[in-house]
Queue: 4 jobs
Job 1
Amino acid sequence: MSETLPRDTATTGPGETDDVLVRVSDLVKYFPVRGGGLISRTVAHVQAVDGVSLTIGRGQTIGLVGETGCGKSTLARCIAGLIPTTSGTVTFEGHNITNLPRRQMQPYRREIQMIFQDPYGSLNPRRRVGSIIGDPFAVHKTASGSKRKRAVQELMERVGLNPEHFNRYPAEFSGGQRQRIGVARALALRPKLIICDEPVSALDVSIQAQVLNLLADLQADYGLSYLFIAHDLEVVRHVSDSVVVMYLGRIAEAGPKDPVYDAPRHPYTNALLSAAPAADPEAAASRQRIILTGDVPSPINPPSGCRFHPRCPKAQELCSQQDPPLEVKAGDPSTHVTACHFPVQEGEVLARSGRTSGGQPR
Amino acid sequence: MGLTRFLIRRILSGIVVLWVVSTAAFFLFFGRNPEIVARQLAGRAATTAILQEVTRNLGLSQPILTQYWHFLDRTVHGNLGLSYYNGGVTVASIVGRDLPRTASVLVGGVVLWLAVGLAVGILSATRARSLFDRLATVGVLVGLSMPTFVLGEILLLAIYLPLNENGYHFINTGYVGLSSGFVPWAEALILPWITLATVQAAVYTRLSRGSLLDTLGEDYIRTARAKGLSERRVIYRHALRGALTPVVSQLGIDVGVLLGGVIVVEQVFGVGGLGQDAVGAISNGDLPLILAFVMLAAAFVVIANILVDLLYAVLDPRVRIS
Amino acid sequence: MSISEIEFQASTVEDAPAEGIQGRSQWALTWRRLRRDKLAVASMIVIVLIAACAIAAPAFAALVGHAPNTVYPNTGLSASGGPVSPGTHGFFLGTDELGRDLFVRIVYGAQISLFVGIITTLIATVAGVSLGLITGYFGGWVDGILARFIDSVLAFPYIVLALSLAVVFGPSLPIVIGVISFFSWAGISRVVRGQALSIKEREYIEAARSLGAGPWRIMFIDILPNLLAPVLVLATLSIPAAITFEATLDYLGLGVPPPTATWGNILSGAQSYYSVAWWYLVFPALALVITTIAFNLLGDGVRDAMDPRTERVFAAGRRKRKKRTPATDTPTPQLPDPPRQAMPPTA
């Protein structure tokens, strides 16, 4: 059990002189929707990711937040090479790894690993835990026999599991322990980047802390980078150096965590933050909740212009016509970018959303 | 899609299937070395003269494609060739004589098995875990484990023989045409029907029981019950329709099994239908007869499947829309 | 609460390792449950006995002094030339119309039945699992073609194929094995394909891909272990179906040709003589039916042992700890009730 304190604010952010591990440029992923009829044609596209660019630096944690359906999981899988992209590039340490055939992608898989959300679904129930954790060694042929067993047991110990349990089945472990197994599996080949797809969302709050601390320790020990996907802002703030807020396939706002959390510019970010439980009861009482009305529009038929405009309390004519560029707004550090025509200013209080201007019915 | 379009499509594809099967069988049988074919047709004891005559009569020395063309040509005109072993009569006449027998066995057997299977299945489902249900389950086990021919022979031994020996002749083997009266016809067929039906009834009992239990667990049945409908109405007017669809689709698949069962039953009870003819034709090497049988079997399967699909569409309105 | 406060509280919860629970595999658990199932155990014993008889057939023949295919017209036929009844002149179960020892023939027949049953099941299982797994995983047009093909095979009247092959090649054991295997693999393949299609969408398969595992590794190391349960049930139930199928083919003269002693052949001969020699019919029939029932009960027991929630199909079974209302008395879909089409025709 780790004794380290919660992490300090990092001093580096994306795009700075520190080593860039992963660079995503204009990533687009559309899923075809096949229509009926005699021959199935593609009648529409689910625009899951629509032009996302970001960088992940060495030893950094980038938090990726957004509602369900905003495309963060799709983005993560595109970066991991699990689904093919429609356009755009992903580079790793300068090498283009976009849509590489499996054989060529293989060496990069050692460097980029994933941890999944569902502790019950992400482990094969019919395999022993030792075999599951040892899989990376087997696939990449880096260790076998007793060497592998030793490595697996070391990993188990490192993540806080009893190494003598390596012959057990996942069903015999609790949810938190299973996530640790997943972490051990991801850690096996000492990757440089671990993509964490909502790794603690399915866990009890008390367990979440343990797993998060584990991830923090590992980062400190091994210099890992994380792409940390979550929808819980508190968790993201706790673990990340920088935050990227996604909405309907696009980035709404991004930057080092303090500027974004303390001075969010995008109305969506404001709404998200206002809904997050606050630690200080007084601050919570005095805070105005911004209620966003309506559901997230379908990514098959996204709203015109700024995708958030149908739900935005500040939306105006321009918002439905022009897509706001992702740029630095007045008064922000150069690393804090927002995609909004009318960013929220210091001290501004957002009205409750009720506008219907701009097209999409709520 | 419309009923007519559906029918046309199925009939067309059925014709294609029929053509493919016939062609495959033809080439399998007659594509071999003509000498071997001739010898098989003429019999092991045939002299060279007979072999030559057979070869000439059937045109076996012609190129295979020519033979095939002749075969197609005469088949669509209803000429199925000659059966040497049956005194040179046309295969078509044999079919004409024996097809009604096979059909009798088939129809009676199917009706009986469906009736019994559904009845027992429904009763079992509605009285789940009762004594009746348990007995039925044991019956199912035995029925499923017993090959048709064994059951047939045992019925002969246990029912026909004692009855016959004691002067009760109402159960017969062999075949009596329907024209001689319904009762004699049925008397000769009752044992074959029971034999054919029992094994299959076992399957359908299990199937209908399971399907009905599943359906009874659905929400719309709960609603019907909540409306205060009597249990009988719930079952027969509401649940049964949904529960029958897997049974019907199973029927489509079982056509092939049914065919095998009919042939076995004919053999056991000496009904003298086409199945028995075909099996007998094996040792005689009577290729034209077997070829005719193959084609008829394929036609039967195709037609049966179309009928089953129609029945399915009647039961399940969703299918009609698609 | 903030995260830091939570973590302080959480320190004691997670760490207590689960002591004393051994990592029992699915198979060990299944075996334990199976052992406790009386019907299944009884079936297993019966099957072992039958197998023992089959293997020891030559010993039995030597014991009674009769060979299976040898006629004994002097001792084995009655004065009028008919078969003798059980117990006469050292013929334990009587003779057939040629004066052959029925008991010895039945015991030798067990060899063929068990051999065919097991070998066809093996072939069908290997072929069915491989094809189902491969096409289920890769999908695409290959899968589409295979699905159609499987449907055609399942709907195909076996008699037509058996007839055609028999008339062209002459009935023989290899033909029997070929025909039965051909009709058995399709059912297994269909189930395996369906399972593979659903399993490959699971997250742990995605995890395996993210590790860089190739399709073959994923198929055989990740997917296959999850398939083995339904496959085992299907395979166990395929054996009696194959035995029945083989007997039927023999009976019709499309299978193993006489004078080889197989149960189907014996019963075929019995048809003409049952009126004077009931033993000629009853004993081989008993052998066949008992064997089939035993395998069926065993298969049912295996399925029950693998997933106790599934309702027992064959045996009326012990009371389960389940509610009695009909609405819940439904077979759970966990392990597929081997669909009728999964087995070769038994009629």
Job 2
Amino acid sequence: MSKDIRITGPMLKVIGQILVAPDSGISGAEIFKSTDVASGTLYPILFRLEKAGWVSSEWEEGDPSELGRPRKRIYRLTATGARECRLAFNGLIPNGRLAWLS
Amino acid sequence: MAIVTILEAFLGKLICKEIEAWLPQASRELLNLAISKLPAHERSRYAEEWSADLANIPGDLSRAMFALGLLKAAWGIHEIEKQQHELIRAMYRTRGKVLTLVLCDENLPTSRQERIGQLLTITVPNLQMESLIVKLLASSGMKVYSMRK
């Protein structure tokens, strides 16, 4: 399934940022602020990853009226995504392990 | 000469203030334009998500640049959706209880292939399908999915 997704440089950065917060998840704005991936590139990448089942997303908890602002969409890497990332990156990394995956 | 310098400084400051005042509205307009360019079924989700993300970007100029990028993002998402819809136009034929689905492109995600199989079981209710064989035109192998009804 790793060939379902063509891994690009910006995509690596996005996946790397999602992996920084595996439990709490991360919003698009937070990824934007911590990488140099432009919003025009970022959201199609997230869309593609989500369609392929590598990433899942859900609304942050809380009601917009209580929060007083729109809810953030929080992205997390799925078990499939983590497995596929390892498979995809195995060929790139000599010892088959990525520092941020171990 | 001094008058020209004072006038330049005054006009420069005035233009800066004007831009500063218009930037938030320009960002909102760009956001709305981007949302209108999305596929209809994705609009409500991205309207909320992008509004929240836009509010999270510090600085009016950065926010405007972020909103400008959303136009490209909307176009990108639209293109991905369009490609996937084209890929669904697949050919299929039946042989007994096995359905062979020939997909048009090897880039179709596996999850999408499975969804096509599920869709066919609904749209072809009389078909006693036991398995779905997916043949990707550009690949040598086949993928078999059990689809017992």
Job 3
Amino acid sequence: MNQQVTNHPLAQNATSVERKGDRELVVTRTFDAEPRIVFKAWSDPELFRKWWLPEGAPMTLLSCDMDVRTGGNYRLEFGVGGQSTEFFGKYLEVVPDERIVWTNDESDEEGAVTTVTFEEQDGKTLLSFHELYPTREALEEAMTGAAAALPTQLDQLDELLSTLSE
Amino acid sequence: MKPLWDLRWAAYCVILNHMVQYATPDLDLSFAALSDATRRGVIEQLGRADASITSLAEKFQMTLTGMKKHISVLEKAGLVSTEKVGRVRTCRLGQAGLEAEAEWIEAHRKLFEARFNALDNVILEMKQEEEDESASD
């Protein structure tokens, strides 16, 4: 068997995640391609669905509608254990090859606003992913595990727990 | 609502662990750790204060071996961490040595790292396709 490892880049760039101030989460990472390419991988639904959900996660991406332009909408439908849950919102600002800003509207409360920027650095792309929560409390709530990230599963769990604790 | 809050936190940890470690594909299985009344009681108890396995065994009126088994299930689910100091093994909520904020950040780092490694591959394919196209021109 002649095995060739071609599907992994030789050197992996580091992913940095930090909390910035009271209500912001910032993720940064460099990619070995110019912004035009990285932007396309974020804005073309067929490409986006190839990488957004980590392989082996207990969820599947059932549908992925993205109208990536200022004022456009998106809707991602995930399947979890026979049930489905949706994430949706609106693109507040789209500047091709530079930035995408969108709302996260699936929760009953005001959601976070996500900004992704693509910045050219010597032919590579420095990508920054910012999640700005409306209030400090909203970020803390997300952090301490309340419904923000995965509302449906947690509601199901509440139901399960209420039947069990009777 | 403190006990329920702790359980939601516990469930959130289970889901994040799944997201980042790709453990079992069945979400129900991960909730098995929380399906037992004693283990839910232990989570509630640890939400109030850290405790040794011995004191938990006494509180829940069971043998040390029995409590060790429950703790082991909770530990594998990433809900509880234990640390042995001298002869006493202390249990606390959450993963070893990580505070809630550090845990949240670490879970996001793992999640985005997995996403971005996959994105690297997509980008490689895109670049390859562009090269192939320009070569065939």
Job 4
Amino acid sequence: MSKLLEVNNLSVDYITLKGAVRAVDNVSFSIEEEQSMGLAGESGCGKSTIAYSLMRLHRPPALIADGSIKLGGREILKMETDELRKFRWEHISMVFQSAMNCLNPVVKLEKQFFEIYKNHGITNNRSEARTLAEELIQIVGIPKERLNDYPHQFSGGMRQRVVIAMALALKPKLLIMDEPTTALDTVVQREILQRVYELKKDLKFSILFITHDLSLMMEFCDNVSIMYAGKLVEQAPSRTILKNPQHPYSYGLKNSFPSLHGEIEYMEGIPGSPLNMSNIPEGCRFQDRCFRAQDICFKVVPPRNHRGNDFYDCHNPMGTLTGSKN
Amino acid sequence: MDKKPIFSVKNVVMDFEISGKNLFSKKRTLRALNDVSFDLYPGESLAVVGESGCGKSTLCRIAMRFYKPTKGQMLYHDECCHSFRGYALKNYKQKVQMIFQDPFSSLNPLHSIYYHLKRPLQLYHKHKSAELKKKMDESLEMVGLVPAEEQGRKYPHQLSGGQKQRAFLARIMAIGADVIFADEPTSMLDVSIRLGVLNLMNKLKKEMGKSFLYITHDIATARYFADRIIVLYSGHMVEWGDVDEVIKHPVHPYTKLLISAAPDPERETLAKLEVADDVEKEVTMWTPESRGCPFQNRCPVAESRCRETFPEAVEVKKNQFVRCIHAESI
């Protein structure tokens, strides 16, 4: 399989009065065609900043300091504004966290779909656009008559499905989902995600799935990247992260959701609070919260250890001893 | 159990008028809670799970005296909490407290953490300054905000979400609450921080004998934290009992649906959601005129009987009750 998206050495700074704060530090990853990749980490670790940079939707004070983002061989960071406008949505589209705010409340859905088709030069004919929209809205499980409704007439889950239908309107190659279901109930959440993954099989697009809920991600993604304080600390197939994580942070994340089966046992989670990005310590960024920290972790930035396509950044990895849950 | 319940809810019905506020619109009534009863014992945690709009938060708000129930009573130490006046009311407000979902807006951004702790101590305990400081530091240490001296001087924006929720718990401890209504206390927090807060609540429950009503839609954390569980659907209690029994052997179709929807990384294939295929995947609006089982429209095994009556509770196992006509046959 060929690589669809390649991100190399991406760094994003936030300019503050006290100087630049590097929110994303030297991040490289790639997504293959028809693959779904998960990006996990706590709030404030830079997940959403990466998502916004991929579409160049970031706004000052955020600034891409370095790196390259290539989609299908084209460099996104060098595009002109006009080119970029066509590029967004046709090649990469995004589903945001709060679907409630993505739809225009005073415009009927039909017209909102029509505007997408018009602005991207698909069709200028209303009835043609209507046919296309009907087709699209039915694949996310909403009856076509409801195109005549306003967004407030839909429930939260339905609105999120409409937003997903819109994101797929121009058949993009990459769909970025930034915490798409955080505000929804578990039943609705599962239904929407299962629908998206069925569509992925039919329409053949790749997914970048961003969430802090690792349990959900491991169920739906092929590959998982774990991010901590602006850096990728581990990347591996989701099975490996589940069974045999190497970085203590991945281990902690994996162990922070209670299981539905088996005995109820005391679980620790991850102690401490997320790192303050304006005050980055020497050595490993996870040092203060890590239960395996050694002297070296406080001095030297951990090197990248490769295992095939996977990697982890740690001086004192978990090894294979922690293979099972106990 | 021979223990006396500290807080009990007896057949509470809550109706809201959702229109009819002016002369011309037709009067409509929404029944948010229908015949809800349970007991909460000292040192026990009871989870209430259900989707949004099922009446979980209404339950909290009635207990906080925001609303008066249409029918039924809420009893605190065998006295109706809506009839308290004067000293009894002050005592009730001290002993029954609530944790909110959003830690970012439940603390006053203009005041330090010390201020938040100082006010209840002054109001309810009349401590003098030296003692006050000691008490404040004690409650901060209890919730794991150490060093207390440093954390207490901080303002809410200097704390992370989990720390804010801890600070809020410290405030509740400083007041001296016995019954704590936790309305989705962890749903705004990161997964990694969530467990810390749950463990803290567990510690307060075990070591200090506090009672918790834990409201959530995350059934996995309910299993981790709670002793008993109530599954609420559209204002009706559909299944309740010991948390392990209910989650391992669910009987009501809605409980089964909730459990199959919970994220489970061990699962190999996509989960099959046992639900009748309807379009509006929402809680049905329940009115006083509605009849039958609230889950009838989404239930995969619904029959014509389900549209007529809502069955009485059946004890399918010791300490596990279900309200479903299919319960006997399972």
